[in-house]
Design a protein that fits this description.
Helix content: over 70%
Number of helices: 2
Radius of gyration: 24 Å
Order of helices and strands: HH
Structural class: mainly alpha
Number of strands: 0
Length: about 70
């Protein structure tokens, strides 16, 4: 998104600059929203796993011979 912003404010609008801008803008938005999604919803998914690991860490495990 930073590179796309720099290219949008670039004074010489050549075909290469316009092409890069067209490619970088949707990709930048995709990565921003994907990162935010992982930041907020990814922590909820890990919470269950952390709770399970905490319970297993405090459990008492014993082995019996047959």
């Amino acid at each position: 998104m930073i590179v796309a912003n720099y290219l949008a404010n670039f004074h010489e609008k050549t075909f290469l600059v316009n092409s890069l801008l067209i490619v970088l803008e949707p990709g930048g938005w995709y990565f921003v929203w994907t990162g935010l999604d992982l930041l907020f919803s990814g922590t909820r998914d890990k919470e269950e796993e952390l709770d399970f690991n905490k319970r297993m860490a405090h459990s008492k495990i014993g082995f019996l011979s047959i």
